[in-house]
């Protein structure tokens, strides 16, 4: 993943170590960064989250996908979501800490959820050749992604077997439910 700024990498390391709730922008100043530089890049703690999401999404859009021969939307979605997990892999603990926090503090997670909903719409545009999907389908795919993300966080297997199995089954159910192919 190409970091938009070296501070993002430092911030994610601190989040992995301290947790999202204990992390603060002041922690970056303790990492030999000036407070002016921190404020110039991240005005708020949530800006770290936005930058992280933007970097993953940018890297995902640069990933060459070959959907030739893959007619089913389920297969294309599976491939793109697994590629997103691959991009998250170096930051798995930071991702786990962030998701865990918002699971415990759902009202604070609304901003996070809105951010992810926009990311899911962008992800769908990667697989749908500019096709428009029903809004509830986008939300259902986001639900599948979040539940798969939890499975991925809990999984210790390097081949992500449990994640792939869950993701495949859940995407199949959602695609059938919305009759989207």
Quick structural gist:
The protein has helices at residues 6-18, 25-29, 35-41, 45-62, 73-88, 92-104, 110-127, 135-154, 161-177. By secondary structure, the chain is mostly helical. The chain has one domain: Tetracycline Repressor, domain 2.
Structural features, described:
This protein has 181 residues and is mainly alpha-helical. It has a single domain, classed as Tetracycline Repressor, domain 2 (Orthogonal Bundle). Helices cover 70% and strands 0% of the residues. The relative contact order is 0.13.
Q: Would you state the CATH class?
A: Mainly Alpha
Order of helices and strands: HHHHHHHHH
Q: How many structural domains does the protein architecture include?
A: 1
Number of contiguous helices: 9
Terminal CA distance: 31 Å
Q: What portion of the residues fall into strands of 2 or more residues?
A: under 5%
Core attributes:
181 residues, mainly alpha, Tetracycline Repressor, domain 2, 9 helices, elongated
Topology, element by element:
Layout: H1 6-18, H2 25-29, H3 35-41, H4 45-62, H5 73-88, H6 92-104, H7 110-127, H8 135-154, H9 161-177
Helix pairs in contact: 1-6, 4-5, 4-7, 5-7, 5-9, 7-8, 8-9
């Amino acid at each position: 993943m190409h970091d938009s700024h070296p501070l993002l990498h430092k911030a994610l390391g601190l989040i992995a170590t301290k947790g999202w709730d204990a992390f603060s922008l002041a922690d970056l100043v303790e990492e030999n960064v000036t407070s002016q530089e921190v404020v110039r890049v991240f005005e708020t703690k949530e800006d770290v989250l936005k930058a992280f999401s933007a970097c993953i999404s940018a890297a995902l859009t640069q990933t060459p996908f070959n959907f030739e021969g893959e007619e089913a939307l389920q297969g294309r979605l599976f491939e793109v979501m697994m590629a997103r997990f691959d991009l998250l892999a170096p930051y798995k603990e930071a991702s786990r800490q962030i998701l865990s926090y918002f699971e415990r503090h759902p009202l604070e997670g609304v901003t996070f959820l809105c951010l992810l909903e926009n990311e899911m719409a962008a992800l769908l545009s990667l697989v749908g050749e500019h096709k428009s999907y029903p809004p509830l389908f986008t939300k259902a795919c986001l639900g599948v992604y979040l539940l798969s993300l939890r499975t991925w966080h809990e999984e210790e297997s390097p081949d992500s077997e449990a994640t792939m199995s869950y993701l495949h089954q859940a995407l199949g159910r959602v695609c059938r439910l919305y009759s989207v192919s």
